[in-house]
Amino acid sequence: MKFLSNNRVDTLLSFEVNNLGKVGHAEISAAPLTIFIGQNNTGKSYIASLMWALANINGISKDSWPRWYKAFISKSKSNQGSSLEIDRKKIEDVINVVQAYFDENCESFLSRVFAYDGFETTQIKFKISDDFESITAAIDVSEIQYDKATNKVVSGSVSKASGNSVIRVRFPRNTPQAYDNIGGRLFYEIIGMALYGSTWGQYRNPIYIPAARTGLLLALKALVSNLFESEDEAPKFPMPLAEFLQRITWPPIERKTAQSEVARWLETNVAKGTIKPSDDLTPNYLYFSEGSDKAVPMHAASSMITELAPLLILLKGRGVGTHIILEEPEAHLHLSAQRYMARAIARLLNAGIHITLTTHSDTFIQQLNNLMAMYERKNKETFLNQKDYEDSDLINPGDVRAYEFRPTKSGTSVVELKRENDGFAVPSLNEILINLADETISLMGS
């Protein structure tokens, strides 16, 4: 098993935000596993949604492109192709363009993302990813055969210093504004490389799996149909939620991938059965208990099944890329099932999936702490055999960052937690547990 890093936390996406919902101030640096911990209604979902949005920065006008990038597009158009190395100095110009866009358009950008107005005082500040290395953008013209005809296409790519292509896109050369279209798409990718560094390919196209999944799944057909109503009649959905609803209704073609293996493992050990789609255009989902061929509709299944089902559906199909933003993975799970869910998080992480999760469960955090402790244990193999764990169940502490959302009188304070020998300790949750224990002892004594 190859782990992602060793004894250090890689800094990938880094940003600072002020006045977002209840969050007064937060400085976030993402890691392969980023954990947002805290009580209800402290702003965890706001920051998680912002993580989704920052992988979807579109709409920056070509008028805002740096002069050297405009010159590159112009030269490509004149010469039918060109290439450009983008070093750290140039990428600073790109970050400045992104910053200027958000300084002017932060309110409207977030209003679109969250589907309501209320971000007049929100500010977001960006920095270049520590993981950034020089990249090369290239545009060329080539010919392709299609239906016995030869057609010219304009191709664009962004490549790492190693020569590996991050993205390659094509437009027919006779398409109006073909070079500007290519330029806009490549600039989006260059922004991603500036913010995320060489890990951008893993963060592109994240999937947001929200809390309260039962209600969304039971009302799936009605909600999806409303997405396509006229603008005046359709209810407003936050963009991450709307995309989640659309992805969960994609044609349910099961694939054999590392993600689908984790889904089937969860079905065996937690669901004790299988989730299958109906044959409808917008599918209903059915639960088949282990050893039974009787279909149970979601409205008749337990809350554990309906909360777990969306994750299983997306992992087994085409709905999950390499970044999952998962709210409350412990929801409606018994403690024994939560332990399997923590191991599933580890298995996804070790399969190369980056995960951002929100939780307010101290026991779920403790299980993640245990999986990190096992990773560092000297007699690891013997311990794993005794406890029936596998290498893929372990979490390298160097791949994890955790943030506590602490309620205050003026809003929420977001603090990065330092991992101690026993793992991440969460003061705001521990205080509640201590108070509960003191109260219980008092009642027993009386």
How are the secondary structure elements laid out?
Layout lengths: L13 E7 L2 E7 L3 E6 L5 H10 L13 H13 L1 E6 L1 H27 L8 E4 L8 E12 L2 E12 L4 E8 L5 H19 L3 H4 L3 E3 L3 H6 L1 H8 L11 H9 L10 H14 L1 E5 L7 E5 L5 E3 L5 H14 L6 E5 L7 H16 L3 E6 L2 H15 L3 H8 L12 E9 L2 E6 L10 H19 L1
Parallel strand pairs: 2-16, 3-14, 3-15, 9-13, 13-14
Antiparallel strand pairs: 1-2, 1-5, 4-6, 6-7, 7-8, 10-11, 11-12, 15-16
Summarize the model shown.
It holds the Pfam family AAA_15. The chain has helices at 44-53, 67-79, 88-114, 178-196, 200-203, 213-218, 220-227, 239-247, 258-271, 303-316, 335-350, 362-376, 380-387, 427-445, and strands spanning 14-20, 23-29, 33-38, 81-86, 123-126, 135-146, 149-160, 165-172, 207-209, 273-277, 285-289, 295-297, 323-327, 354-359, 400-408, 411-416.
Written overview of the protein:
The protein has about 450 residues and is of the alpha/beta class. It has a domain at about 60-200. It is about 40% helix and about 25% strand. A hairpin with a 4-residue loop joins strand 7 (about 150-160) and strand 8 (about 165-170). The longest helix has 27 residues, at about 90-115. The protein is globular. The model is unreliable at about 1-10 (pLDDT under 50).
